[in-house]
């Protein structure tokens, strides 16, 4: 018989006569059919003694690579016997057979089959060597053998994926099963992703956690290509299990790309496109004047009045009423409570039920399942937040006391024609989204502006000088003054960049397989846009941690083309209320700059209380609480403040 050779280069006949070959070669021989047919039981035991455990994974990967080189162009079908014996692998085998898996170098079923049988045969040998020399007593049904086989199979697949990681965007080394789970940041993940991107020299990176691939986009170039030009692929959104349990799956941010999403998006667009928001300007000015009067009377409580003002604008647009103060308005209070419970429950891995959805079906009294009563309470608040103000408007319309609002317009529209099953629910959802999306983001942006101006008094003075020149000292700024105040506009843009309202986008999901610059992004991959990385790139924004409005000005004082649009999102998932948010935040900033100096608060000894530049984690990021005082600039400012009541009545 002619000698049988293998990729390692070992002659099997030589091996039979001399057992003096390296373990790698012995292990290869153990896993070939020709060898098994010619080896006796005692030879198995002798050869096995020369093999080390760490060789198992290495040779399994070598065997897989051998099959790849030998049959690279053929599509292998999985063994029926293998599928019958190991039904739990059927899903993996079916996926490996897909054309996209083969085309992009994923594990084809033939290689899985080779790896599985290699591992299981070795486990049989191990068990036999320890227990008996009777081949007939070797059984795959033994639990010990099954567990060993599964363990080795897992390690083999891990070794293979590690060898072929270049097919995916670059990522840090992973651990078996858990991936990068133990490396995921708990604070400011956007900074960690940015640092990983620099370390890996890629603007898109892979993060693996418990089998889930997440691709993080860290550059404007990649975001523009994937999220805008290829928006048909990257506009879907996964809905985390915890979001469903909290009752927040009504929010546009977590609705998959579907008809349900399009209906709600259409309602919001009708009410918040660029021309529609012009109708809200009188309301915005009235509420902002209320903010100015509030901080004048209580200059240390600016944070409370920012929240009241933002809430009042959003609640009035949505429902035609609402003072914005959680202490006085039950609708606002319910929304604030629901928002606070939501805030830290949405990032991948933040709660176990997102990773193991079956936990939702277990009793809440079991250890570690405290999320269930928490979610039940949040669902109650969320349901009340959507239903109570809606029913209030309906009752007001019946009584003739309801004012104009988004809700009343939608209710009238439904009365005029047939109402579908989802129409009223979609209208309720859209009104609730108007409040929860508009109020919290406005609070974040305005708080950042106050902090930046407190820490940069020279920026305050320059912006005030420009406003005085354009507006004068006997009135407040108007929306029409915006084109004539480029430096104030630059301050506003730098506020959006410096501490982002949403440093990371809500995760999307790839709707189909895709390739970006040679990297494979499979269907179902979570996609996160690291907006913070894009707007803190030192190559585009030198000294990115500094607050420098002049970044957006040309040498002759005109605005550049960098309008900070990416702060509001990308592609089809861009913020629906961006025009309202843009005008509201700009108007609040220039209004308080025209009247107040923002100065440090004093401690009991008369020393300045320092303000810390840091921000919270969550869906919406806020600057950490700090203290300051809104001080009227001069007598002219005080005189203007006293006239605000009359100006409100004129409007």
Automatic annotation (TrEMBL):
Heme binds at residue 575. Keywords: Heme, Iron, Membrane, Metal-binding, Monooxygenase, Oxidoreductase, Transmembrane, Transmembrane helix. The chain crosses the membrane at residues 140-160. GO terms for molecular function: heme binding; iron ion binding; monooxygenase activity; oxidoreductase activity, acting on paired donors, with incorporation or reduction of molecular oxygen. Its cofactor is heme. SUPFAM superfamilies: Cytochrome P450. InterPro entries: Cyt_P450 (IPR001128), Cyt_P450_E_grp-I (IPR002401), Cyt_P450_sf (IPR036396), Cytochrome_P450_fung (IPR050364). It comes from Dentipellis fragilis. Pathway: Secondary metabolite biosynthesis. Pfam families: p450. Belongs to the cytochrome P450 family. This is Cytochrome P450.
């Amino acid at each position: 018989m002619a000698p049988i050779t293998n990729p390692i280069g070992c002659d099997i006949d030589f091996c039979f006569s001399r057992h003096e070959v390296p373990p790698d070669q012995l292990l290869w021989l153990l896993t070939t059919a020709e060898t098994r047919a010619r080896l006796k039981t005692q030879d198995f035991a002798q050869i096995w003694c020369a093999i080390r455990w760490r060789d198992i994974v290495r040779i399994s990967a070598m065997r897989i690579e051998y099959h790849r080189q030998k049959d690279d162009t053929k599509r292998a079908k999985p063994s029926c016997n293998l599928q019958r014996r190991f039904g739990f692998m059927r899903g993996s085998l079916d996926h490996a057979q897909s054309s996209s898996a083969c085309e992009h170098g994923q594990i084809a079923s033939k290689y899985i089959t080779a790896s599985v049988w290699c591992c299981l045969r070795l486990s049989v040998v191990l068990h036999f060597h320890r227990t008996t020399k009777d081949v007939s007593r070797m059984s795959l049904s033994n639990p010990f053998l099954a567990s060993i086989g599964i363990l080795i199979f897992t390690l083999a697949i891990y070794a293979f994926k590690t060898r072929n990681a270049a097919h995916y965007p670059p990522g840090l080394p992973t651990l078996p099963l858990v991936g990068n789970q133990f490396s995921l940041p708990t604070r400011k993940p956007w900074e960690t992703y940015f640092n990983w991107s620099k370390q890996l020299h890629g603007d898109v990176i892979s993060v693996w956690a418990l089998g889930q691939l997440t691709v993080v986009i860290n550059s404007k170039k990649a975001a523009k290509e994937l999220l805008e030009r290829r928006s048909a692929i990257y506009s879907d959104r996964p809905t985390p299990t915890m979001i469903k349990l909290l009752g927040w799956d009504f929010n546009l941010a977590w609705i998959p790309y579907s008809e349900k999403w399009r209906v709600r998006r259409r309602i919001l667009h009708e009410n918040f496109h660029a021309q529609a928001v012009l109708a809200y300007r009188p309301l915005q000015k009235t509420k902002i004047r209320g903010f100015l009067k509030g901080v004048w009377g209580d200059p240390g409580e600016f944070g409370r009045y920012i929240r009241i003002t933002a809430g009042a604008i959003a609640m009035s647009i949505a429902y035609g009423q609402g003072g914005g103060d959680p202490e006085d308005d039950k609708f606002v209070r319910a929304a604030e409570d629901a928002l606070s419970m939501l805030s830290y429950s949405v990032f991948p891995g933040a709660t176990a039920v997102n990773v193991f959805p079956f936990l939702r079906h277990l009793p809440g009294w079991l250890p570690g399942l405290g999320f269930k009563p928490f979610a039940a309470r949040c669902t109650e608040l969320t349901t009340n937040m959507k239903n109570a103000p809606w029913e209030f408007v309906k009752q007001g319309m019946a009584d003739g006391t309801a004012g104009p609002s988004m809700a009343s317009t939608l209710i009238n529209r439904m009365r005029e024609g047939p109402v579908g099953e989802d129409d009223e629910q979609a209208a309720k959802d859209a009104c609730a989204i108007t409040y929860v999306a508009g109020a919290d983001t406005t609070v974040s942006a305005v708080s950042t502006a106050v902090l930046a101006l407190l820490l940069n008094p020279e920026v305050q003075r320059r912006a005030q000088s420009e406003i005085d020149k354009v507006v004068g000292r006997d009135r407040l700024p108007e929306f029409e003054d915006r084109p004539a105040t480029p430096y104030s506009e630059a301050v506003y843009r730098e506020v959006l960049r410096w501490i982002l309202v949403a440093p990371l986008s809500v995760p999307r999901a790839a709707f189909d397989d895709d390739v970006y610059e040679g990297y494979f992004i499979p269907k179902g991959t979570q996609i996160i846009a690291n907006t913070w990385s894009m707007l803190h790139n030192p190559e585009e924004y030198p000294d990115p941690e500094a607050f420098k409005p002049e970044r957006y000005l040309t040498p002759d004082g005109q605005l550049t083309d960098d309008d900070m649009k990416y702060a509001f999102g990308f592609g089809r998932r861009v913020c629906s209320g961006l025009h309202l948010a843009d005008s509201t935040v700009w108007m609040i900033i220039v209004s308080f700059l025209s009247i107040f100096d923002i100065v440090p608060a004093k401690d009991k000894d008369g020393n300045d209380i320092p303000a810390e530049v840091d921000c919270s984690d969550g869906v919406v990021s806020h600057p950490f609480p700090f203290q300051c005082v809104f001080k009227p600039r001069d007598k002219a400012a005080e005189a203007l403040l006293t006239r605000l009541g009359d100006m409100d009545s004129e409007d």
